[in-house]
Amino acid sequence: MELPHFDFLADFATVSVQGRARSRNQDVILCDPEISLFGVADGLGGHAAGEVAARIAVDTAAEHLGSGQMGETVGRFAADPNIENRRAVLTLLEEAVHEAHRAVIAEGTDDPAKQDMGTTLDLVLLVRDRAFVAHVGDSRVYLLRPTVTLQLTDDHKRYDGMRSSSGRTPPSSLAGPLSNSIGQRSQLRVDTVFAALETGDRLIVGSDGAFSDIENENTLAKPTDTPGADNCCSLLLDNAQNAGGLDDISLVVIDVGSAVEHAGGKASHAAEDAAVAGMSPLLCELNAAQQKALLASAIELDLPNERTLARRITGDRVAYIILEGSVKLHSGRTLGPSGMLHAESLVDLTRREALPVTAEPTRLLRIRLDDFEEVCALDRDLAARLYERLARHLARLAP
Questions:
Q1: Which residues contact 132 (CB under 8 A, 6 or more apart)?
Q2: pLDDT digits (tens, 9 = 90+) for 15-61
Q3: Which of 249, 308, 320, 335 could disulfide-link 339, Cβ–Cβ 3.0 to 4.6 Å?
Q4: What angle do CA 361, 399, 311 make, to 5 degrees?
């Protein structure tokens, strides 16, 4: 079907079932094609009225994002998709999550029986050729492309540092409690991600029960390699239930179809960003096709000033390429556009030094080791060129 302000036809499907170890389903799905908004909230198991918290969070966020202010902001981005209008959409998306947070806390304050209720929340808003994502908790959003599967969100786990020696995500049995959720009294952290979409892409939003046996992106690709959003939902549900199905399982699958014409300016900065990334130590000297293949595995982040750039995200090592802004290194030196951070992550190594911090609002591309290896596995010639570039760059960094 056609969605407002979205440059592609979309096929979507949802499913939500109660877990075998649950007395009731505490998940809530958000599917509002009239404003191109989708999401999942997972009420916290073992907490009072988790399903109430999930419903309040979803309804509050949807109401906020269906307001006239959001419509105007989305309309401005659709007409002129520049960086300032993009940031305005991300800001309002983040505000919607904070509104949901306040609403859940207020309900718990008014009703002592619901005082400790909480929920995760993941929202996906589709505008032009982009997916705007807001994330709190340990539900997940994945972007599946023909050549790579990307986890767009990071689990907010208290024991995120407890990992296997390989640096990969451990079995779900080792997962720690949530460090961040809607309804917690501590300061809320909202992660936002901005992803470009193309025909053939697939977005999956799911509660943690849907991914109980998913250890990495390659594992996810197997049950989702099927045409049709309905089929994908059914296969993922069967997969989760066959793995035990103890927790509630909720999924939203969105398939990006053929392009449609919408009025508005041509998406800006895409070519400029590719040119900046192409001058990075990793991509320079590669041809345009090779650069595009690697960039398909990258996720764009738009970070505020003084944000620390971690070496690991949800158990996987990550590297960054700066598109705009600057980052202060442990040495005191400042690195700008085309600069690369944590390059050693892509060869599964760690440098023992303080983490870099953004020196101003900064846009970056983030590349996970798993995704990098997936791209390399598909093209040996590209892999050889990339590892050669990495070796040269790391040799220059050596003391």
A1: 89, 90, 93, 124, 125, 126, 192, 193, 194
A2: 999 988 888 899 999 999 999 999 999 998 666 789 999 999 999 99
A3: 335
A4: 40
Burial 342-373 (b: 16+ CB within 10 A, else e): bbbbbeeeeeeeeebbbbeebbbbbbbbbbbb
Q: What is the pTM of this model?
A: 0.88
Q: Are residues 303 and 213 in the same domain?
A: no
Which residue, among 278, 373, 354, has the nearest Cα to 309 in the 3D structure? 354
| pLDDT tens digits, one per residue of 175-212 | 567 889 999 877 899 999 989 999 999 999 999 999 87
Task: Give residue 156's domain range.
Answer: 8-259
User: Are 25 and 164 found together in one domain?
Assistant: yes
Tell whether 47 and 102 lie within a shared domain: yes
**DSSP-based three-state secondary structure for 94:** helix
34 plus 60 within the same structural domain: yes
Q: Considering the domain boundaries, does residue 288 fall inside one?
A: yes
| SS3 state of residue 66 | coil
Q: Are residues 160 and 294 in the same domain?
A: no
